[in-house]
Amino acid sequence: MNFKKNIAAAIANQLKKKESDIFDVLEVPPEPSLGDYAFPCFSLAKELKKNPNQIAQELADKIKAQFIAKTAVNGAYLNFFVDKSKLSKDVLSAILQKKAKYGQSSEGKGKTIVIDMSSPNIAKPFGIGHLRSTIIGNALRNLLKFQGYKVIRVNHLGDWGTQFGKLITAYRKWGKPALLKKNSIDYLLQLYVKFHDESEKKPELEDEARAWFKKLEDGNREALSLWKEFKDLSIREFKKIYQLLGVEFEAYSGESFYNKELAGTIKILEKSGITEMSEGALIVNLEKHSLPPAILRKSDGATVYMTRDIAAAIYRKKKYKFNKMLYEVGGEQKLHFLQLFKVLELLGHSWAKDCVHIDHGLYLGKDGKKFSTRKGKTVFMTHVLEETISLACKIIEEKNSKLKMKDKLAKDIGVGAIIFGDLCNDRSNDAIFDIDKFTSFEGETGPYLQYTNARLCSILRKKKLTNTKVDYQLYDEEEQEIVKHLGRFSDAIADSSRQYKPHILARYLLDLAQMVNSYYATHQVLQDDKKIEKARLTLITTVKQVLANGLGLLGIKALEQM
Ligand code: ARG
């Protein structure tokens, strides 16, 4: 039984309201002594022309259900106390029965969500912003899938644009094929930097670059084959990162993929009457909407990022018939997405309202400065990941050198550390990228959660829970609090995915781990009283299951031993 749902249903029934509306406003009181759920009556006062306290009192008199042990009016709140042993039985047997499926819902059944995520730029290093987009996007995808949505992950690679004209020019002038093969992105970046240095002295290089991009757009064989080589090498590098992180995509359709749609898209835009010419460029004037103009085609005829995003959105709507489309992209592109969604709306696409920019903040270094530049040098994500993994390796070597498969463990711990380091923060905020902190086994970290899981596993290796006939009356207050928290797992998932904020689930898991660790310190699980032992083993088993389910949703491996 879902207590929250049932309470919502009971209230809704009395007030003749929609259950889901009541469900959304039901709160968990800040103190357990105030009950398990609280219904605030403020907003009803106007409608019912009564004071909130009176409404709460009248509701209390009417609502009586088996599963509610007691109700209490506290000012404008009606507080509900559920029957504890009934709650325990319900929650724990649901976990034991549903196992990896515990927490799942069918909210999204029959609905499709496209999530545009990761989307690094070809011939450039995979940046920390792309890492955030990959990690947050992947967690959201897992959460939404768990809620029954069909989720399409699209990698909108930055694989088109004038920078390729520069790169082709640079490579033709100074490039060495052997170095390209060996150092791929590293080398392409060097060429790109060299181009910029040289073009300061010789501005005519810029013209040459423009000409090469034009050739590329016109399908010139040499230009295309160089571009393709750069692209393949880059994707190969990116895939190493995806493999480490355990992330996959349903589609790798980068910006270049929409080239063939662009002429048609521009035609539609022009026909719709929303475009105008401005200094030789084709734009949509968004002044009335308090936004700067959206440029669709520059005066030299080249299309831009925006044009390709418009084409991509229309294409995706046609192809995937999405109910929602999420763009997991850094907050610095806020304006771009406001413009994009506005243009789609002005084009008459009512589904523009289903497009959401899921932004994220910056990662800062420990010194509080932007992380992506260190003494003017770019940080390579592969190096950061490798460094983290070798740090994890050192830590486990010190802690427990007898462990088997240390390399694999170090990888799972290092990757978990980075993922959790990101996801425990509200994504919209800036965060500090601190590898030492992320890899610590204590504090609010991935390894701490994995370690908690491993500890529970080690108890269960000593004694497995066989039958589950438990005397739920045996649970003390601390145990009941843990049960209550376990019962809120699906709320944490629903809140996380409705707000597109994985940190809600991350925080939930930290609370669960803290609860079970302090419980474990004061409660002997394995012991002579077999009834108590069974009750406690049941609790441990279910906590372990929920931890594992939650970690899995965030994209982190729940380790059995570490
Ligand atoms: N490649 C872009 C960048 O690195 C991100 C693309 C995001 N997705 C989109 N549809 N615009 O800035």
How many extended strands? 14
β-strand amount: 5-15%
Low-pLDDT runs: none
> Overall 3D geometry?
globular
Question: How large is the count of helical segments?
Answer: 21
Q: Name the helicity range.
A: 55-70%
Main sheet: which strands, in order across? Answer: 5-4-9-10
Largest sheet: 4 strands, parallel
| Amino- and carboxy-terminal Cα gap | 35 Å
Bound molecules: arginine
- Class of secondary structure makeup: alpha/beta
Residue-averaged pLDDT: 94
Summarize the structure.
A hairpin with a 2-residue loop joins strand 2 (68-74) and strand 3.
Characterise the protein shown here.
- This protein is α/β, with parallel strands linked by helices.
- The protein has 21 helices and 14 strands.
- The protein has helices at residues 3-15, 19-25, 44-48, 52-62, 84-98, 128-146, 163-174, 177-201, 204-217, 221-245, 259-271, 305-320, 334-346, 381-399, 406-423, 435-438, 446-462, 477-487, 489-498, 503-522, 530-554; strands spanning 37-40, 68-74, 77-82, 112-116, 150-154, 275-278, 281-284, 294-297, 324-328, 355-358, 363-364, 373-374, 377-378, 431-432.
- The strands form five sheets. A four-stranded parallel beta sheet has the order 5-4-9-10. It has a three-stranded antiparallel beta sheet with strand order 1-3-2. The chain has a three-stranded antiparallel beta sheet with strand order 6-7-8.
- The longest helix has 25 residues, at 177-201.
- The two termini are 35 Å apart.
- The model has no long low-confidence stretch (mean pLDDT 94).
- Residues 116, 119, 121, 156, 158, 309, 327, 329 line the site of arginine (ARG).
